[in-house]
UniProtKB/TrEMBL annotation:
InterPro entries: Chloromuconate_cycloisomerase, Enolase-like_C_sf, Enolase-like_N, Enolase_C-like, Mandel_Rmase/mucon_lact_enz_CS, Mandelate_racemase_C, Mandelate_racemase_N_dom. PANTHER family: O-SUCCINYLBENZOATE SYNTHASE (PTHR48073:SF2), O-SUCCINYLBENZOATE SYNTHASE-RELATED (PTHR48073). Belongs to the mandelate racemase/muconate lactonizing enzyme family. It is an enzyme of class 5 (isomerase). This is Muconate cycloisomerase.
Amino acid sequence: MSSVIESIETLLVDLPTIRPHKLSMTTMACQTMVIVRMRHSDGVEGLGEGTTIGGLAYGPESPESIKRNIDAYLAPLLIGQPADNLNVLRARMARHTRGNMIAKSALETALLDARGKRLGLSVADLLGGARHAHLPVLWTLASGDTDKDIDEAFQRLDDRRHCDFKLKIGARDLDEDVRHVAAIKAALGERASVRVDVNQAWDEATAVRGIAALQDAGIELIEQALPAREHAGLVRLANRFRVPMLADEAVADARDGLDLAARGFSGAFALKIAKSGGPVAALELAHLAQTAGIGLYGGTLLEGTLGTAASLHAWSTLGELAWGTEMFGPLLLEDDIVAEPLRYHEFGVDLPAGPGLGIALDEDKLAHYSRK
Ligand code: MUC
Ligand code: MG
């Protein structure tokens, strides 16, 4: 008799960040995660996480909407259903609810975690099998202060934590941003790869000016310079400059990827389980990109350990990640709600061993940081 989904609990968990994290659309001092606990009739519990950035600043879902829409709409679709057929359950959620991809990603993660625990397999095993046990991880310098960012970068290099850095720009005047980025790249020289993420803040004319200057400064990758829906403009930038473009907000799933590929986009796609609605759809995008000759980058919405682990299981199944990953979310948080943190070392992180995600909760910490 196959196991049945019995209950789904959602918790809002607020964790402070180690320093303010400044992006073009918001400054984060705290990260809010929605933790899903899904109990099955055989006693197995699946864990999932749905996390975004800065309330409603980044995208159409907020932590509160993720929790509310799981509780009111998505959980009732799953409760009472046989737990083991992920394809049927994903189709059921897609047929009866629109959007809410972060909420769906949290639920898909919990389904995979539970199934893995039941079968004694890791989530990567369920997704076809891991090809890597250690994945490279970049760090985002986003204190807002050039000298602090340089100090932080040297510390991470000396600790052998990270050797690739992404700078968040777009909130300030273009010339100020270019000065900030060029100073950091000049200080780090050949010791580090430096990339920027504009988070949609520029129009095309500003992007042309900005990218020309950043290319001259030695920046290696330009992430999401234009608003998400401006696919034609993004392709023009990719064709115009030597420095590659990384599509992030522009490419949520394989449908977006197909549109960009059909328009002749070259460069790379940032994969995120949150924007695709879970690991399975994120890998569908990855496979389309591989077929189209577009590079891959394992992206984060700054999830905590559960969401980061789910992403790592997915990215570990891919052969090549041309631009590595940015799965550093837990390192931006002052504390954690899991029993054993992920192991970051040698410029990367170890894939947690299963079964499932291979992550257990620390119940005291979870209770402490859960919103009352
Ligand atoms: C994004 O847009 O890429 C990833 C790293 C970071 O600092 O912010 C995120 C989101
Ligand atoms: Mg981005």
